[in-house]
Each structure stands twice: as structure tokens, then as C-alpha cells.
């Protein structure tokens, strides 16, 4: 199973189109989120380091990396880039980071409840997104 979301499958090629649950799994960049958890653990365990600054830099780098990684993982010869999937996956990374707290916990408005609720509703909604590119 490739990482790209399949919305059309011709009978001669076999296989099937991705279901709601397949799309949810493919939209969430679990590998990047896992790396994020490791990075935040390392940064938070450091002493005498600008923790907040490092977390924001790592967040920016993770956001860019998510987009680039998704482009690479979804590229298929002779097909347009999976722009919708790249945007939704990048949004997924941002939502996961927001739900996990760091670095958003440094902002005055942030409450863990907001992140948890956003994560639940975003994850339920992304399975309804069917990309136009195929």
C-alpha cells in the first residue's frame, strides 16, 4: 500500500480505492509526529538551553519537513503532485503538535483541552477530504 491516497482504481490494475479510514491513516504523518515526540523529549531534557526558542525552531522545521516528506512519499510517475494530501498532512502535523502542547504551551491562550478537542475533530474531519488529484 502506497502513501498516496487512491480515489480511482481501474479494474485492470486491481486493488481498491481508499476508504475513510485509509485516508485518515494516510493523512496523519505518524513518522514525523514520532520524530517530534523524540525531539521535544531531547529539548526538554536539556539544561541551560533556550527551550522555548528551540521548540519553535523545531516546530517550523517539522512543518516544512512534513510537507517535503509527504511530497516525496506520495509522488507517483506521470501523476500530478498530491497537493491536497500535502496540505492536509501538514495541517495534521500542526494539529498534533498543538495537541501535545509544546511549544504552544508558552502562549497565554493555550489550554490542553483546546488541543485535545481540535485533534479529535480534525482527525474525524480529514477522512472526509477526497483529493482531486489522482
Can you describe what's shown?
It is built from 5 helices and no strands. It is mainly α and about 130 residues long. It starts with 19 loop residues before the first helix and ends in an 8-residue tail after the last helix. Helices cover about 60% and strands about 0% of the residues.
Summary of the model, kept short:
With 134 residues, the chain is an all-alpha fold. Helix content is 60%, strand content 0%.
Determine the oligomeric state from the structure.
Answer: single chain
Number of strands: 0
Q: Provide the low-confidence segments as ranges.
A: none
Q: What kind of sheet is the major sheet?
A: none
Cα-to-Cα separation, first versus last residue: 15 Å
pLDDT averaged over residues? 91
Taking Cα atoms only, what radius of gyration do you get, to the nearest Å? 17 Å
Helical stretch tally: 5
Task: Tell the overall outline.
Answer: elongated
Q: Helices and strands, in N-to-C order?
A: HHHHH
Strand content: under 5%
| Share in helix | 55-70%
- What number of structural domains do the residues give? 1
Topology readout:
Elements: H1 20-27, H2 30-45, H3 51-74, H4 83-100, H5 112-126
Salient structural properties:
elongated; 134 residues; mainly alpha
